[in-house]
C-alpha cells in the first residue's frame, strides 16, 4: 500500500496532451503537486507529453516504477497490468471504466487483471475510480480539479463524482485530509485493506466512508472492529431504498446487501452510520475535539425559546433525551438567573442574557451528574455579546471536561468572531441547534456501539442438544420437497435443543381433538396444521379459548371447512391442540436467516398477526451474550 500512497516513481499510462482528457489531467495533477519523486509518461504514440519524455511501455522506463496510474481503454488494461508485473511495479490505480459494471465481458476482464496482478503481488485500486490523493506526501493521482488540503481525516468514497464535490466543499470549509481515496469497483484493494492501512497511520485521526456496496463483508468487519477501538470510523451508506440499491448496483456492478443487516454489522463493529454527507465531517471533527458522552441525556442552555425547542425536537426524534436537572441545579439556577427563566431544561436564560449570565448557567449545569452533555445556543439579540460570551465559555471550561460541549452560535457576520474563538479552542459550533442536537446523539450512538466490541460472547451452558434428532427431522422435511416447517415440527426442533414450548398435540379427527383437549385441560386452542398455509389466522385457522367438548368439535369443523373452501384437501393436515395461556405476556418473533454477505443473522421483535405491518424488530449478528441480547431487545 505504501507504493500507492508514498511512491518514489510514478508512471502515467495513457498520458496525453489532449485538452480535457483524463490522461492530461492526471499527468498535470502529478507534476503540479511535487511529492519528491519522478513522473514518467507512458504513451507509445508520442515522444513527449507536456514537455516530459514519454516511453512506449512501463518496461522501458529507466527507473524502478512504484506506482502505475492507468487511464487507457478497458480492453488494454490486462496486458498493461502484465507489463507492470514484469517490470516489478507494486501498486496500480486503474482509472478506466468499462468492467463489471457493464456486464459479463467486463467481469471477465477484471478476473484476468486480478490473476495477473496476484502473480506479482501487485495491489490495485479501482477500476472505475477518480484516483488517490495523499495530501501529506503531495501525491495527486486523480483527474479532479484541485488538491485536497493536508489534515487528519482519511476519506474513502465509492463514488468518484462525490469525491469531487467533497473536495470542492472541503477547500471552502478548510477541512484537511491525510488520504483522499476513490475506491471504485474494489477489484483488489477493498474497505478492509484501506481501514487497516489508515488505522496504522498515526497521521489519520478519523476515517470517513461513502459506501454503496460493502464488498467483502468479513474483511470489512475484521478491520472495523480492530481499528474503531483507536479511531472513529464514520460511514454514510447509500442504497437504503430499493430504487437506490438498484442504482448502486448498476453503478458499481455489485449487489447491495440488506440495509437492516448492514446496520447490525455496523453496530457490532463499532462503526457509526450517519444520514447526511455533512454529518460525516461534523462527526470526524467533534470526535477528535470532544470526549464521548456516557449516555443520551443532553442539557441545553439558550437565550431564546424557539431554538431550544428545535434542538429538543431533533434530540428526541433521533433517540436522545433531555437531562432531568437535579434539585440542587435548579436551586442554584434560581439563585443566579432572572425570575422568569424557564425553570426547566432547556435552560432559557432569556433574550437579554449577557456573557456573565451564560457563564453562571453553564457553571451550574456542567456539574449536574444527571447530564451527559451540554449544548449552548446563542442568538444575536441586541444585548448579546457573541465574542465575549464565547471567551467566557472557553474560560469556564478550562478545567478538564468529561462531557462533550457543543455550541450553536446562530447568525452570520455578528457571530463570526465568536465562532472563531470557539473553533480555536476545540469547541465545535454549528449553524443550527437541531444539527448540534443530532450530532450529540451520533456521539452517544458511537459510544454505545463501541461497547459491543468489548463483549466477547462464549457459548452458553444448558441442556445438551439432540442434534441427531433435529437433523433427522429437517432431512425428512427436505426430502419431501418442503422448505418450511409446520408449527408442530418447529416445536419438535425446539424440544431437541431444550427450548421449552407449550404442550402441543396433533389431531387428525374430531375425536382425537376432543381426547387431547380433555387430557390437556380446558380451556384450549385449536390451530390449523398445514404444509401449505403459512398464515393460519388469515383463513380462520385459529380458534381460541375453547371451554367444552362441543366447542372443540365445532372449531375443528369450522377450521376444516374454511381451509377446504380456500384450498384443496392437501392443505388440511388436521389441527394442533394446545392449552389456552391466560398469563399476560408479549407476542414475540424470534428468528434467524443466512445473509449472503454476513452469514447468520438473528431477528427479535413484536410477533402476532400484525408482525409484517408494524415491523417492530431488531437484527444482530451472532454470537450474542446476555448483554448483547439485551441491547438487541432494547432496539424494539
Key terms for this structure?
seven-stranded mixed β-sheet; single chain; 22 helices; alpha/beta; 636 residues; Dna Ligase, domain 1; Rossmann fold; flat
The residue ranges in which pLDDT falls below 50 over 5 or more consecutive positions are 247-257
Spatial arrangement of strands, main beta sheet:
9-8-11-10-12-13-14
User: How much strand content do the residues show?
Assistant: 15-25%
Percent in helix: 25-40%
Q: At the first level of CATH, what is the class of the domain at 291-453?
A: Alpha Beta
Report on the architecture of this protein.
The protein has 636 residues and is of the alpha/beta class. It is 40% helix and 19% strand. A seven-stranded mixed sheet has the order 9-8-11-10-12-13-14, sandwiched between helices. Strands 2-1-5-6-7 form a five-stranded parallel sheet, sandwiched between helices. Strands 15, 16, 17, 18 and 19 form a five-stranded parallel sheet that branches. Mean pLDDT is 90; it is low at 247-257.
Task: Please summarize what this structure is.
With 636 residues, the chain is an alpha/beta fold. It contains 22 helices and 26 strands.
Write the SSE topology:
Elements: H1 2-5, E1 9-13, H2 22-31, E2 38-42, E3 48-49, E4 52-53, E5 67-70, H3 77-86, E6 91-94, H4 104-119, E7 123-125, E8 131-134, E9 139-142, E10 149-157, H5 160-173, E11 176-182, H6 191-200, E12 206-211, H7 217-227, E13 233-237, H8 242-252, H9 259-268, E14 272-273, H10 277-289, E15 297-302, H11 305-317, E16 321-322, H12 327-336, E17 347-348, H13 355-365, E18 373-378, H14 386-396, E19 405-409, H15 413-424, H16 433-453, H17 467-479, H18 487-496, E20 505-507, H19 510-520, E21 524-528, E22 542-546, H20 549-566, E23 575-579, E24 588-595, E25 599-606, H21 611-614, E26 617-620, H22 626-634
Parallel strand pairs: 1-2, 1-5, 5-6, 6-7, 10-11, 10-12, 12-13, 13-14, 15-16, 15-17, 15-18, 18-19
Antiparallel strand pairs: 3-4, 8-9, 8-11, 20-23, 21-22, 21-23, 24-25, 25-26
Helix pairs in contact: 3-4, 6-7, 11-16, 12-13, 13-14, 14-15, 17-18, 19-20
Amino acid at each position: 500500500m505504501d507504493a500507492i500512497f508514498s511512491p518514489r516513481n510514478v508512471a502515467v499510462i495513457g498520458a496525453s496532451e489532449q485538452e480535457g482528457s483524463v490522461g492530461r489531467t492526471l499527468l498535470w495533477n502529478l507534476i503540479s503537486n511535487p511529492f519528491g519523486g519522478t513522473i514518467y509518461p507512458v504513451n507509445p504514440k508520442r515522444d513527449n507529453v507536456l514537455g516530459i519524455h514519454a516511453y512506449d511501455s512501463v518496461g522501458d522506463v529507466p527507473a524502478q516504477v512504484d506506482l502505475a496510474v492507468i487511464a487507457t481503454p478497458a480492453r488494454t488494461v490486462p496486458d498493461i497490468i502484465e507489463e507492470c508485473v514484469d517490470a516489478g511495479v507494486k501498486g496500480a490505480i486503474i482509472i478506466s471504466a468499462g468492467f463489471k459494471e457493464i456486464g459479463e465481458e467486463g467481469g471477465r476482464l477484471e478476473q484476468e487483471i486480478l490473476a495477473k496482478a496476484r502473480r506479482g503481488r501487485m495491489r490495485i485500486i479501482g477500476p472505475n475510480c477518480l484516483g488517490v490523493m495523499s495530501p501529506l506526501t503531495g501525491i495527486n493521482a486523480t483527474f479532479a480539479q484541485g488538491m485536497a488540503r493536508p489534515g487528519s481525516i482519511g476519506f474513502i468514497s465509492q463514488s468518484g463524482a462525490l469525491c469531487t464535490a467533497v473536495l470542492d466543499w472541503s477547500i471552502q470549509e478548510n477541512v484537511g485530509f491525510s488520504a483522499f481515496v476513490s475506491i471504485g469497483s474494489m477489484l483488489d484493494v477493498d474497505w478492509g485493506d484501506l481501514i487497516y492501512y489508515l488505522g496504522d497511520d498515526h497521521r489519520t485521526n478519523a476515517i470517513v466512508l461513502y459506501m454503496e456496496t460493502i464488498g467483502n463483508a468479513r474483511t470489512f468487519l475484521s478491520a472495523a472492529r480492530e481499528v474503531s477501538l483507536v479511531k472513529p470510523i464514520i460511514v454514510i451508506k447509500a442504497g437504503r431504498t430499493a430504487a437506490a440499491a438498484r442504482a448502486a448496483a448498476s453503478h458499481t456492478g455489485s449487489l447491495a446487501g440488506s440495509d437492516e443487516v448492514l446496520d447490525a454489522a455496523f453496530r457490532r463493529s463499532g462503526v457509526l452510520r450517519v444520514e447526511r454527507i455533512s454529518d460525516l465531517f461534523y462527526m470526524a471533527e467533534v470526535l477528535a475535539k470532544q470526549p464521548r458522552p456516557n449516555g443520551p441525556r443532553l442539557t441545553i442552555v439558550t437565550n431564546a425559546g424557539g431554538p431550544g425547542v428545535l434542538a429538543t425536537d431533533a434530540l428526541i426524534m433521533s433517540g436522545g433525551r433531555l437531562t432531568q436537572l437535579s434539585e440542587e441545579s435548579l436551586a442554584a439556577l434560581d439563585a443566579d438567573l432572572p425570575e422568569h427563566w424557564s425553570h426547566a431544561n432547556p435552560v432559557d436564560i432569556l433574550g437579554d442574557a449577557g456573557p456573565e449570565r451564560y457563564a453562571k448557567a453553564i457553571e451550574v449545569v456542567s456539574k449536574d451528574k444527571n447530564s451527559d452533555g451540554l449544548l449552548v445556543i446563542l442568538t444575536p439579540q441586541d444585548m448579546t455579546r457573541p465574542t465575549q460570551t464565547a471567551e467566557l465559555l472557553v474560560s469556564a471550561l478550562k478545567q478538564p471536561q468529561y462531557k462533550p460541549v457543543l455550541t450553536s452560535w446562530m447568525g452570520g457576520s455578528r457571530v463570526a468572531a465568536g465562532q472563531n474563538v470557539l473553533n480555536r479552542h476545540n469547541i465545535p459550533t454549528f449553524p443550527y441547534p437541531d444539527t448540534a442536537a443530532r450530532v450529540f446523539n451520533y456521539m452517544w450512538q458511537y459510544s454505545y456501539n463501541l461497547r459491543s466490541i468489548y463483549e466477547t460472547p462464549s457459548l452458553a451452558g444448558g441442556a445438551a442438544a439432540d442434534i441427531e434428532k433435529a437433523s433427522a427431522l429437517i432431512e425428512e422435511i427436505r426430502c419431501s420437497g418442503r422448505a418450511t416447517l409446520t408449527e408442530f415440527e418447529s416445536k419438535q426442533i425446539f424440544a431437541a435443543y431444550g427450548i421449552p414450548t407449550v404442550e402441543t398435540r396433533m389431531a387428525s379427527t374430531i375425536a382425537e381433538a376432543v381426547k387431547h383437549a380433555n387430557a390437556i385441560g380446558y380451556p384450549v386452542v385449536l390451530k390449523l396444521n398445514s404444509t401449505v398455509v403459512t398464515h393460519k389466522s388469515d383463513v380462520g385457522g385459529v380458534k381460541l379459548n375453547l371451554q367444552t367438548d362441543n366447542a372443540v368439535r365445532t372449531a375443528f369443523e369450522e377450521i376444516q371447512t374454511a381451509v377446504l373452501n380456500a384450498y384443496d384437501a392437501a392443505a388440511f393436515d388436521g389441527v394442533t391442540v394446545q392449552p389456552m395461556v391466560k398469563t399476560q405476556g408479549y407476542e414475540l418473533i424470534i428468528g434467524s436467516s443466512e445473509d449472503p454477505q454476513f452469514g447468520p443473522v438473528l431477528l427479535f421483535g413484536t410477533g402476532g398477526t400484525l408482525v409484517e405491518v408494524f415491523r417492530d424488530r431488531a437484527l444482530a449478528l451472532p454470537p450474542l451474550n446476555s448483554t448483547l441480547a439485551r441491547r438487541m431487545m432494547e432496539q424494539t
